[in-house]
Specification:
The chain has about 150 residues and is α+β, with helices and mostly antiparallel strands. It contains one helix and seven strands; from the N terminus they run H-E-E-E-E-E-E-E. The longest helix is centred in the first third of the chain and has 38 residues.
Length: about 150
């Protein structure tokens, strides 16, 4: 009988300790999110301040694939533009003004072996992240759009 009560006391202490640990972890996470939220309000200096919301598209006619040569900061390669995938429209995020309401981005799926194979620190309104940059998958081109009624 003594053993059962001793076990119950140990179990009770363990449950209390777990609840305390979980509370401490949650408090630390909330504090970290609050810091990130404060940082997330401004664009890093020198970046284009426009935001885009991307919508999946279904073209009404087939797209004729075409080959393009691409050179960017990750290297040089050849790709085949396969099909349109997303239309990205300028968007007001958290009531920030839209600077250019006309220019949209139409993003196409690519078939290519070009890959960056780099690691980079990316900084934006949501914070700083270390990211592995892998294969090239899409090409987004400036576009104009007109809504059909």
């Amino acid at each position: 009988m003594f053993m059962l009560r001793y076990f119950d006391v140990l179990q009770f202490r363990e449950e209390k300790l777990m609840k305390f640990a979980i509370s401490a972890i949650l408090a630390a996470a909330i504090a970290a999110l609050s810091i990130d939220a404060a940082f997330a309000e401004k664009n890093p200096p020198g970046v284009n301040p426009e935001h885009y919301a991307c919508y999946r598209v279904t073209p009404s006619q087939p797209f004729k694939p075409r080959q393009v040569g691409l050179v960017d900061q990750f290297g040089k390669g050849v790709a085949v533009v396969v099909r349109a995938m997303y239309l990205c429209a300028p968007v007001s995020k958290n009531e920030e003004p839209i600077k250019d309401e006309r220019t949209h981005l139409l993003c196409y799926v690519l078939k290519t072996s070009k890959a960056a194979n780099k690691v980079a620190v990316v900084v934006n309104q949501f914070g700083e992240s270390l990211m592995k940059i892998g294969p090239l998958e899409q090409l987004c081109v400036p576009s104009l759009k007109q809504i059909k009624k």
